[in-house]
Amino acid sequence: MFAVTSVAILVVMGIALARAFIGPTVYDRILAVNMFGTKTVLFIAVYGFLTERPEFMDIALVYALINFVGVIAVLKFVERFPPPSAQSDE
Amino acid sequence: MMSLIIDALSWACLLLGCFLGVSGAFGVFRFKDFYSRAHAASVTDTLCVFFIVAGLVLQSGFNLVTVKLIFIVVLLWLTSPVASHALIRSAYQTGLKPTLSTTRKESAKRGQS
To answer: Are A57 and B75 in contact (CB under 8 A)?
Structure first.
């Protein structure tokens, strides 16, 4: 059961990565990385259940915090120094 | 009997969460415009998390792991909308115009806001 869930989450992470590579604007990339981060949190939690190791919940909690801070930091940076690809959304 | 019901329920929650995740990822991958992609991504972020963690909570019963899982859900419910809002706001501020059906001038002419 958890294996099926972790495989599904891996598929979602793969699709998010694909969007990160393709994404024309830098904001698509940040969006994909943000989604990747939240799915990593889920994957850690499910993997913790898969291998019956309850400490993984703490790791997932810390990762969720770090992911959020990371996204906000990147956004503050990109807002101050927008790269050329920020405006174009062909 | 009771554990059978709980297992079936958690199995259903996990599958529903996976389905929402995959559909959200598919939406992020397929949509044309950045803003619709951002909508697709942030919609599933909260609901997919809820269902998968609900499935896990049903599995783990009533102990410390469940409390940590509830912390994770509450944290993600608070932070991911804020992150999406910050992302979309900064995208709009630095000039990424959404592709609207009508341009601003036409809607102004027709007297819409």
So the answer is: no
Instruction: Tell me whether B92 touches chain A (CB under 8 Å).
Output: no
The whole-angstrom separation of Cα B41 and Cα B57 is 24
Give the ipTM.
Answer: 0.83
Q: What is the pLDDT of residue A88?
A: 56
Chain B within 8 Å of A45 (Cβ-Cβ)? yes
Task: Specify if A88 maps to a domain.
Answer: no
Asked if A25 contacts B90 with a C-beta cutoff of 8 angstroms, the reply is no
pLDDT of residue B112: 64
Count of structural domains within chain A: 1
Q: Which of A41, A66, A51 is nearest to B73 (CA)?
A: A41
Q: Which of residues 12-31 of B touch A (CB under 8 A)?
A: 14-15, 17-18, 21-22, 24-26, 28-29
Residue A75, domain member (yes or no): yes
**With an 8 Å Cβ cutoff, is B68 touching chain A?**
yes
Compare B110 and A78 and report the one with higher pLDDT: A78
The domain in which residue B46 lies consists of 2-112
* pLDDT tens-place string over residues A17-53: 998 998 888 888 999 999 999 999 999 999 999 998 8
Q: Is B21 within 8 Å of A18 when comparing Cβ atoms?
A: no
